[in-house]
Amino acid sequence: MPIPVSVYLLFLAPTAALLVAFFLFRPLRPQWTHWPILASCAVVAAASMDLAAKTYTGWSMDAPLGVWMAAGSWEVYFGVRIDGLCAAVLAMVAVVGGLIHVYAAGYMREDPGFARFFLCFHLFFLSMIGMLVSNNFVQFYLFWEGVGLCSFLLIGFWTHKQSARSAALQAFVTNRVGDLAFLVAILILLKAYGDTRFEYVFGQMAYGGGPLLLLVGVLLFVAAASKSAQFPLYFWLPDAMEGPTPVSALMHAATMVTAGIFLLARSWPLIAFVPGLGTLIAAVGGVTAVFAGLLACGQTDLKRILAYSTVSHLGLMALALGLGRVGIAVLHLIMHGFFKAVLFLCAGNIAHGLGKSAADISEVGGLRKHMPFTLACFMAAAISLAGIWPAAGFFSKDGIIEACLEAGPGWAALALTAAALGAFYISRMLFLAFFGPSPEQKPGHPHEAPAGMSVPVGFLALGALLAGFLSPGIGRLLVKGAMSPEESLALAHFSWPVFAAGTSAAVIGFAAAWFLTIARPRFDWTWRREHPGLQALVASDFGWRHVVAFVVKTSWRFAEWVGGALDHRTWDGFLEWTSPAAVSLGGAVSLKSGRLSDYMWWIVMGTAALLAAALI
């Protein structure tokens, strides 16, 4: 079967849009830069849906489109793999990412860097698309690096802010840890197999390479942990909120942080082959989910609450993956994409209504009167995040809870605690922002965002409410052309005990939030004032940020010491010694003595040597 046109459109549409926007619109009409890019988003969304429909009927492909690079006899093909896993995630990324592009056109319209923003924003989107459809680790890694580069440019987009520049650098450097691990894993695979195509690597594992595969699996997990913000490498993600709100929404819902989870899902045959690695991933994911959930409960900045929420939900995905439930983890990734995009964009609408780039809970309150549409969308996404039936998040979160209940009481405790914390922090945010007392002095006059920003949020809110009913179809789609065992891709079935456990956890979180915000409206400010030590502990992520700062400072000092010992005191001294030594040596062997008899002597000796060489 020939390669469908839809496959080519995934790359051609964004590439053409970027070229037209950069060379034509940016210099002539920078305020129109977004038009070719929005058209590209529509084409990519249509192509993704077409590929998902084809895959659902049983079609799949794994084929090269051409040679990407060559070194001697070694070649890397630009290849595409479309199977159920790729098609499901690709459709979500295309739809959610496209709607966030529409929102960004309204949100960033007055920004002087509008053209630059949209070019970087769409390159971010293209890099994620390329990564999802890659059929080998080398190509996957190149697009993986593209995602990282674009995130750096977008987090630090407002270069006039020192905090934005610092956050971008922190994200970039932290992700280098995972990037290095990923690169080493690829080099090991190349050395062992001479090829990094997923299908080939997974097929060769049965013939040996146990210790190497253990190392490769651990390195891939480190790569995923840094990109998808798992403990202890999570800390860059909350600080990345310094970027514009559309960047936060795209990064948390459809691109950057989902890349690591997708890498684990794509590499699951290799990870499952390594004994004990799944348990390690589940343990790290469970700890991350609870740890970040606790931190989200004490934040005051709206976007930081949602950022810690993302870390917690990524931990839940890793927990499900580690327990061997790849399908459930991917389903939660898809559902999370919808409701987290809505929450971030609603936070952006609130900040926009207040005339700010970000908003704090001390600056909001009583917004239900001024922003009823934003309230409705936020409530839809909050219900979904809390896992309340029939919202989308219910179907995936209950699946994770079911997997943990089957695995044992320890895993169940982690999942249910994370679920209760999730319901608490999102209900707290809802109550404080929309139902709490209005602040005495607001930074602006709250009002609804214009239609260009409200309409995409409305569509995403419908997805956050209704996407869960697509779960049976997504489950059937995931097994099409799968390289992982079908049992790992199976989704959960409805269970009353699981429903009761998950809903009870959500109700407990909701009730606690109501009591501490509505029944005791000043509690959130009182405890910070009366317990500054506890507030400082929360602000430092229970001390972990101090640990990170200590490690960074110690590493910096060690580097300075090594530089001083090897460079300044050793190497520099050696170089400084070579200069007079060279002068002395040159003087010792120099032929320039200034005496005519010496010159005549050397001429005679040289002539004799040449005659001897010619005659003998």
Topology of this structure?
Layout: H1 5-28, H2 34-56, E1 61-71, E2 74-82, H3 84-107, H4 114-133, H5 137-155, H6 162-193, H7 198-204, H8 210-227, H9 236-239, H10 245-253, H11 256-266, H12 268-273, H13 277-296, H14 302-322, H15 326-353, H16 372-386, H17 392-407, H18 409-435, H19 451-466, H20 471-478, H21 486-489, H22 496-519, H23 523-530, H24 532-539, H25 544-589, H26 596-615
Antiparallel strand pairs: 1-2
Helix pairs in contact: 1-2, 1-4, 2-3, 3-4, 3-10, 3-15, 3-19, 3-20, 4-5, 5-6, 6-8, 8-11, 10-15, 11-14, 11-15, 13-14, 13-18, 14-15, 14-17, 14-18, 15-16, 15-17, 15-19, 16-18, 16-19, 17-18, 17-22, 18-22
Helix share of residues?
Answer: over 70%
Helix/strand order: HHEEHHHHHHHHHHHHHHHHHHHHHHHH
Form type: globular
Distance between the termini: 78 Å
Main sheet makeup: 2 strands, antiparallel
Low-confidence stretches: none
Q: Would you tell me the structural class of the helices and strands? A: mainly alpha
Q: Compute the gyration radius: what is it?
A: 29 Å
**Strand arrangement across the biggest beta sheet:** 1-2
Number of strand segments:
2
Query: DSSP strand (E) fraction?
Result: under 5%
Mean pLDDT: 91
Q: Number of helical runs?
A: 26
Give a description of the structure.
The chain is mainly α. Among the domains are: 276-481 and 496-542, no CATH class; 545-575. Helix content is 74%, strand content 3%. The chain is built from 26 helices and two strands. Strands 1-2 form a two-stranded antiparallel ribbon. Helix 5 packs antiparallel against helix 6, helix 10 (245-253) packs antiparallel against helix 15 (326-353) and helix 16 (372-386) packs parallel to helix 19. The protein starts with a helix and ends with a helix.
